[in-house]
Write a structure and sequence with these properties.
Elements (H helix, E strand, L loop, with lengths): L2 E2 L10 E2 L17 E6 L2 E6 L13 E2 L2 E3 L2 E3 L2 E2 L5 E4 L8 E6 L2 E8 L2 E10 L2 E10 L6 E6 L2 E6 L2 E8 L2 E9 L5 E8 L2 E7 L5 E7 L7 E8 L5 E4 L6 E4 L4 E4 L5 E4 L6 E5 L2 E5 L3 E6 L5 E6 L3 E7 L2 E8 L2 E10 L2 E12 L20 E4 L2 E5 L6 E4 L9 E5 L2 E6 L2 E6 L7 E7 L6 E4 L7 E3 L15 E3 L7 E7 L5 E8 L6 E4 L3 E7 L5 E8 L13 E6 L6 E4 L1 E2 L4 E6 L6 E7 L6 E7 L2 E8 L2 E7 L11 E13 L2 E16 L8 E5 L3 E6 L10 E6 L2 E9 L8 E5 L2 E6 L2 E6 L4
Parallel strand pairs: 41-44, 51-55
Antiparallel strand pairs: 1-2, 3-4, 5-8, 6-7, 9-65, 10-11, 11-12, 12-13, 14-15, 15-16, 16-17, 18-19, 19-20, 20-21, 22-23, 23-24, 24-25, 26-27, 27-28, 28-29, 30-31, 31-32, 32-33, 34-35, 35-36, 37-38, 38-39, 39-40, 41-42, 43-46, 44-45, 46-47, 47-48, 48-49, 50-52, 52-53, 53-54, 55-56, 56-57, 57-58, ...
């Protein structure tokens, strides 16, 4: 059986060509330091090169490498357990262009927001200044010209000014818990704010911004038809307001001066031109007299504006968002450039909210998380791809490098100095919605899902994706080059409607639980198969039957390739634990009765760690709130399961089903189990990663987290353990008791 060699470009890995369906599929010794193939009807195992990355299963040995076809543990970890660093991307958060290749980034930080002023040079961003705001939850920002920026937060907003390379806060305003602010314009020294009310008409709020650091509320003007968009006139003495059915001209006092009689859902004003558009039409007017100079009709118009480059119109065409640039010649628009921005989101029809596309200065375009500068000549769009822009959720580790992934971006972070990680390659790209398998030339495989999967599509555990809520489980085989650019090689529909898809170091598993919980099907593939277009050939297909009348309720996340476990629930408030050898003739050991509801299981070899809680006797059935946490270590000894350790403690009343603050097991190496607990421990009652010694669960240490958001990945690197997800990236020295 031949092996495909990608060479040294880091693209397609050494991919196994699947055998003919008539050949036996069991040619795989499950060792990451060997590659197997059937040659002349015989299974042949070949050692990978010495020095290739591997994992010996012990978190306390760092720098594991293949030697003569076997994984050899590296040097022992030194120093006590603890966080080495909690790196964050320098330019994450909402952003807005303010002209001259300058950008503002609104980075959540603690209970407030850090506003970062940065300058773009080529594909790089350089920080100029930073301003700390006590305001959390800033969701949008708008460039108002004259180096003024308005921002929107949970129940209000504020005004910022940029002077040279410095940032200044000009004041804030409140809107209360019901209203929301969504458009701004600066007219003389008045800040106009479009307010929306889900229970009534929209208002135009007028604020006095003449003071250097305070905004004074001057009152509101009702807009019965709604305030869809807002723009200042060229001389900043009037404002144009789109209602959807008309376009209004408003004085600095907020009075309606006149109506243009032209329907619009968006308005843009620049250098004496007014651009109005609806969903199907764009009209360009001369500001001085209101004369129409040109119009563009299209099936779907997202937004339009006139700049020094000409008339710019973003439309939807054949599933793509296209930005067309027009020059007006003799009253007719002539296309001078058409540039694809990206695909239309099939769910919303947009990549981002329409109103935010032109929120930046006209020298920039922000499309979701992507940043573009606008050049003076075609092609006009030039993306700024600084890898420090944002870091995605899922992770794959390779030596001293972290590869952070999702279906919108790929970032490589160098951990050579773990106290000062730095992004070295990558940026945002437009990927494919679905599960993705990354099989590198070296190191563990990566399993990840699209960002839209969280938190609405079920629960994810590190190395595992919940797929039962999906109509089908498609897996994409994807590789990345040295610049973190992706290439998709093949797409496979996993058979059997799996409940979970797991990844170990070099293998992919699908665990399918039938609706009644009567049996569990486990299927295994060598991950390299996913890069070949031929049909998948399983190396393992195993069915495990639950005891009659005792349905399977929980399945273990696979931490190794030799065994799995599951818990059944014949009676409320308790569980029966079962251990299963993989590929061992459907051998099931158990049950062992536990007096807790089991929420999560981790198995490594003959050891199982179960996590759960005691049922609330005051609640009939399974309560949504828990009041304690319990860990139990179980060992298989011959044909029996034996409980060897147990520990637990009381917790604050905590939701057991929150995807924003999950209670989950992260990693288990047979000796130490790591869990994410939003309530922490009695010694440190805060969101934490908690490490517990499996042989004596009362022994534990905690790694404090900034917030309880989920962790999607847990990996061992040459520098220690790394956990990542929406909660952030945590680099930690392992606990080695």
């Amino acid at each position: 059986m031949p092996l495909l060699d990608a060479g040294a470009d880091g693209g397609l890995p050494d991919a196994w060509v699947p055998p003919d369906a008539s050949e036996p599929p069991g040619c795989d010794d499950l060792d990451p330091c060997t590659r197997e193939a059937i040659v002349g009807g015989v299974c042949v195992s070949t050692a990978v090169r010495d020095g290739a990355l591997c994992d010996d299963g012990d978190s306390c040995t760092l720098g594991d490498r293949c030697v003569a076809g076997r994984c050899r543990g590296g040097a022992p970890s030194t120093g006590g357990a603890g966080l080495v660093s909690v790196p964050v991307p320098a330019f994450r958060g909402r952003s807005v262009g303010i002209g001259g290749d300058d950008f503002l980034f609104f980075r959540p930080e603690g209970t407030g927001t850090a506003v970062v002023l940065a300058h773009g040079e080529g594909g790089r961003l350089d920080e100029l200044d930073e301003l700390q705001l006590p305001t959390p939850g800033i969701s949008r920002a708008f460039s108002l010209g004259e180096k003024l920026v308005a921002y929107v937060a949970f129940h209000g907003g504020g005004l910022l000014e940029i002077s040279g390379d410095e940032l200044f806060a000009r004041g804030t305003f409140d809107v209360g818990p019901v209203l929301s602010a969504h458009h701004f314009a600066m007219i003389e020294d008045r800040l106009f704010v479009c307010m929306s009310d889900p229970f009534g008409p929209s208002d135009l709020r007028v604020l006095d911004a003449s003071a250097p650091d305070v905004l004074v509320d001057l009152g509101t003007v009702p807009i019965p038809d709604g305030c869809r968009a807002l723009a200042a006139s060229t001389d900043r003495r009037r404002a144009y307001l789109s209602t959807g059915t008309d376009t209004l001209v408003v004085t600095p006092d907020g009075l309606i001066e006149r109506a243009l009689g032209i329907a619009s859902t968006s308005v843009h004003v620049s250098d004496g031109f007014v651009t109005l558009n609806t969903e199907r039409r764009v009209q360009l007017l001369r500001e001085a007299d209101g004369v129409e100079l040109a119009r563009v009709d299209a099936p779907v118009v997202q937004i339009a504006r006139h700049t020094r480059r000409g008339l710019e119109v973003m439309t939807h065409e054949a599933g793509m968002r296209v930005l067309s640039f027009y020059e007006i010649r003799a009253g007719a628009p002539v296309v001078i450039s058409r540039e694809v921005v990206g695909p239309v989101d099939p769910g919303t029809g947009l990549a981002v909210e329409t109103t935010s596309v032109w929120a930046s200065h006209e020298d920039a375009l922000l499309d979701g998380m992507r940043l573009f500068r606008m050049r003076a000549t075609p092609p006009f769009l030039e993306e700024i791809r600084d890898p420090r822009r944002f870091w995605p959720y899922w992770m794959r580790a390779a030596g001293t490098t972290l590869h952070l992934r999702d279906d919108h971006g790929a970032i490589a972070i160098d951990l050579s100095d773990p106290a000062a990680p730095r992004a070295v390659a990558g940026g945002e790209f437009l990927g494919t919605d679905g599960m993705t398998i990354e099989v590198p030339n070296d190191g563990e495989i990566g399993l990840y899902g699209a960002r839209s999967w969280w938190p609405t599509r079920g629960r994810h555990r590190p190395g595992s994706l919940f797929t039962q809520s999906l109509s089908h489980a498609n897996v994409i085989g994807r590789s990345f080059d040295a610049a973190e650019r992706p290439t998709d090689h093949a797409t496979h529909a996993l058979p059997g409607g799996p409940t979970y898809v797991h990844a170990t170091y070099r293998h992919v598993y699908a665990e399918s639980l039938d609706a009644s919980g009567a049996h569990l099907d486990v299927t295994r593939w060598r991950a390299e198969q996913l890069f070949a277009p031929e049909p998948l050939v399983a190396g393992l297909e195993q069915r495990v039957d639950a005891p009659p009348g005792d349905p399977i309720a929980q399945i273990a996340r696979l931490h190794g390739d030799t065994a799995t476990a599951f818990a059944t629930t014949a009676a409320w408030g308790s569980a029966d634990l079962h251990w299963v050898v993989l590929g061992g003739g459907e051998r099931v050991v158990g049950p062992l009765h536990l007096d807790i509801e089991v929420e999560d299981l981790a198995v490594d070899g003959d050891r199982i760690v179960a996590m759960g809680w005691h049922a609330d006797p005051a609640s009939p059935g399974s309560a949504l709130t828990i009041h304690d946490i319990v860990f139990v270590t179980v060992e298989r000894r011959g044909d029996a399961l034996v409980e060897v350790s147990r520990a637990g403690w009381a917790t604050p009343a905590t939701s057991r089903v929150s995807t924003y603050a999950p209670i989950q097991l992260l990693r288990f190496d047979g000796r130490v189990v790591y869990a994410q607990l939003p309530f922490g421990t009695p010694d440190e009652p805060r969101p934490s990663i908690v490490a517990l010694l499996a042989s004596d669960l009362s022994a534990r240490v905690g790694y404090p987290m900034r917030d309880p958001l989920p962790l999607f990945s847990a990996s061992e690197t040459d520098m220690g353990l790394v956990f990542s997800g929406p909660a952030g990236v945590y680099v930690a020295r392992p606990w080695c008791p």
